[in-house]
Amino acid sequence: MTLGRDAEIDVVAGEPKAGGRPRADYRTDLITVLLGTWFSVGLFLDAWAHSNVPELESFFTPWHAVFYSGFAATGAWILWVLWRNYQQGLRGLDAVPVGYGPAVLALPVFAAAGVGDYLWHTFIGIEQGIDILFSPTHLVLIATMVLILTTPLRTLWSDRSVVAPTFRRFLPAGLALAFATSLVLLFASFADASGYTGAQVIRAFTFDKAEGGSGRASDLAASIVVTNIIMIMPLLLAARRFRLPFGTATTLAVVVMGLSTATAAYTNMSTAIGFIVSGVVIDVLLVKLNPAEDRLKEYRIFAMAASFVTWAVYFASAIIDQGTTPSVTEMWTGAPIMAALHGLLMAVLLVPTARR
User: Fold this and answer.
1) What is the pLDDT of residues 60-80, one digit of tens each?
2) How many angstroms separate the Cα of 334 from the Cα of each of 106, 319, 341?
3) Model confidence over 5-34: pLDDT tens digits?
4) DSSP class of residue 3?
5) Please, what's the largest Cα pairwise distance for the chain?
6) How far apart are the first and last CA of the chain?
7) Which long-range contacts (CB under 8 A, 24 or more apart) does 190-193 make?
8) Which residues of the chain have pLDDT under 50?
9) What is the pLDDT at residue 10?
10) Do 216 and 73 contact (CB within 8 A), yes or no?
C-alpha cells in the first residue's frame, strides 16, 4: 500500500484490503471510465443515427460497431482486472474489487440484451423516433450500461477514508457520474431542455396569452422541470458523500452538453455554452457553501442556487443569442424560480434532517 499525493491510501487492485476484498487503484478506475467514454460515445452516435438517418434499415451499422466495440473493450478490461486478482490467489467474490460487483453482473445481461436488440430489429424493425427510447431491449441496455459506467464512482464511494478528494482523485468518479447523467438525460430526450436552440427557447415562451397560451410553452416548461431534476440530483447525491472539488459541476456540464450537442447536430451551441457557464458558477457555489449532510442549511441553499443559476443563464444565453426576450415575461422570469423550488424539494427528500 502506498500513501498517495492526496493523503489517501490507494490499494492496488489484487492486493487485499482490510476487509479481504481488493480495492481498484486510481489507474484501474481511470481506464475503466475512459473505456466507458468510448462505450458512451457509441451510444450517442447510434441515437443520432436513429433520429437523423431515415434510410437506417440494418442492425449492422458503423454506429453499432462503435457502441458494441466499446462494450467489448470495457467488458474485457473488467474481466482482466478479475483475472489479475485470480492470478494473485483471490477466489470467488474476493477476486472482485469493491464496487465492481454490479458491473460484473451487468456484463452478461448487457450482452444478452444486445442479442435481443438484434432480434428485435430483425423481426420488428428499426426505430426512428421517440419509440427508440421505449424499446424494451434498449431500456435493458441503458440500465446495465449505467451500472457498468458508474463503477469508479462506487469504488471511491466505498472508501471511507476519502472525504474531500482533489479534482484529480475525484476525476474517474466524476466522469462516471457525468456519463451516467448524460445517459439518463438521453433516454428522457422527449423532455430535455438542453436540446433546445436559442431560437426555440424564445419562440416557446412567446405566445398570445389571450388565446390560451402555446403548446410549445408547455413542452419547454415540462422539459425544464425534468432536465433540472436530472442535472441537480447527481450533484446533491455526491455532495452527501463528498466535499466536492472545484470542477465537478463543470465536468458534468461539459460531458452532458458535449454529447447533447453532438446528438442535436450542433444546432444548440448557445444553450451548451450557457450550461457550461452555469457549471462554473455552480462550482463556485460548491466551494463557497460546502454543502453536506451535516450542513443542512448550506445543502438546501446550494440546491436552490444551483438550479436557479442553471436556468437563469439558460434564458440569458438564448436572449443574447437571439437579441430579444420572450414575450411572456412571467414564463422566462418565473422558470428559474420554479427550478430553484424543485431543487429545494430534491434536497429535502435526499436529506430530510441534518446528519449528526
Assistant:
1) 667 677 888 888 999 999 999
2) 42, 15, 11
3) 333 333 444 444 545 688 889 999 999 999
4) E
5) 75
6) 32
7) 190/130, 190/133, 191/219, 191/222, 191/223, 191/225, 191/226, 191/227, 192/223, 192/226, 192/227, 192/260, 193/220, 193/223, 193/224, 193/226, 193/227, 193/228, 193/314
8) 1-16, 18
9) 39
10) no
Which residue from 230, 139, 135 is spatially nearest to 178, judged by alpha carbons?
230
Q: How far is CA 44 from CA 166, 171, 187, 258, in A?
A: 30, 22, 11, 10
Pairing of strands 9-10, 2-3: antiparallel
User: And the C-alpha cell for 252?
Assistant: 458534468
- Please state, in angstroms and rounded to a whole number, the distance separating the CA atoms of residues 136 and 113: 9
Q: Cell for 318?
A: 438564448
Distance CA 233, CA 120 (A): 33
Quote the CA–CA distance of 218 and 241 in Å, as a whole number.
36
C-alpha closest to that of 119 among 98, 108, 135: 135
- Going by C-beta distance under 8 Å and a sequence separation of 6 or more, which residues neighbour residue 274? 313, 314, 316, 317, 318
How far apart, in whole angstroms, are the C-alpha atoms of residue 89 and residue 67?
Answer: 34
- Residues 169, 9 contacting (CB under 8 angstroms): no
Q: Which cell numbers in the block locate residue 353?
A: 434532517
* Cell digits of residue 148: 457498468
Strand partners, 10: 2
> Which H or E run includes 9?
strand 9-10
Dist CA 336 CA 310 (whole Å): 8
**141: which DSSP letter?**
H
Angle CA(231)–CA(146)–CA(122) in degrees, nearest 5? 115
Contact assessment for residue 111 and residue 137, using Cβ atoms and an 8 Å cutoff: no
